[in-house]
Fold:
Amino acid sequence: MTARDASLDRVADKVARSERLTRDDALTLFRSHDLLAIGALADAANRAKNGDRVYFAANQHINPTNVCVLRNTCVFCSFARMPQEDGAYTRSLEEVFAEADAARDNATREFHIVGGLHPKLELQYYLDMFRGLRERHPGVHIKALTAVEVAHLARLEGMEVVAVLQAMKEAGVTSLPGGGAEVFSPAARATIADRKLTGDEWLAVHRAAHRVGLPSNCTMLYGHVETLEDRVDHLLALRELQDETHGFLTYIPLAYHPDHNELGEALGRTGTATTGFDDLKNIAVGRLVLDNIPHVKTHWPMVTPFISQVSLGFGCDDLEGTVVFERVYHEAGAGTPMWLSYDEIIGLIRGAGKEPVERDSLYQTVRTFEDWTPGQAVARPEGPAPQRALFQISPRTRAKVRGSRMPAASAVDGAE
Ligand code: SF4
Structure:
């Protein structure tokens, strides 16, 4: 491959030889503006693993509560509320089951369950939820609770993290989502999430999950105050754990959204978003550095279905899914739809010249689409009428900028 940016030649040679990239190589990639060359390298690396296949899931998001004890700590978050704050909610189990019953008339194969760190919701609430969902929807995988939620429940119950994970597995959870990683850099976390899990603590929960037989996903939140070095070190930490456990299924770069949160106001970035250039570069560099993680997923609710479709030529082999209904990033200003239909997902994948493959949470093939013509899927309804109110987004009122730990400007502005 001939790159416009000659500094990429050394990396290109390594990719051609399937040689592992170093920290310097990863920094070279992030510093380069030759996006098409980086994308071509990542595309080659992805094709070697996944051919033309692009995976997606028919999934449904369930967010049991937005009450979170770290509401005043994670200044990048627009989802969380204090218990008495406007918009705070906590679902009863009956409400969760009613919401999930929307899956009955659809092709749902995965419940994606994440929420706030409620000060009083006990482990038993979640175990009863998982068992109830399993009984009602035996064919649907349950991907549930981020590392910080697991650690919170362990603290609340006075249990070991591994015991919480074991109980979740016995109640029917099949994998963990990757959220809550943000960026591992202690300096960046001191600004954006000073009392949340450290990088090492996040990795320890996932290590424990892998050991009890729960595979998981991993993420990195980018486009806030992190430096390019922070990004690289984050990716290398994920790669190191994967060498040890082989438990990560997919890597998902997550674009920071600055609306309705304190960090966005402090940075003066309300109403803006990450650039398409940076979105594609994060996909591509992730694919190239994480040579031991099988899949790289684009999260279309954050970067738009259009950037996600383009990312399929930049090293990405997973278009997420139908995501009925995404709430967390819409609270932060995401202007994308709250769900996509089966046909829209297949159309995006086919439009990029790729082969759609529906998967379950564990990347087992549910179906392929050689004979597919649009209109065959059961239409995805907007939820049963009485539940539509559950999916109305009413963002937090103006965020209050607190304290001196807020940065004056975004460190990542220099990334592009
Ligand atoms: S990011 Fe998670 S832990 Fe932090 S405030 Fe939001 S919901 Fe709570």
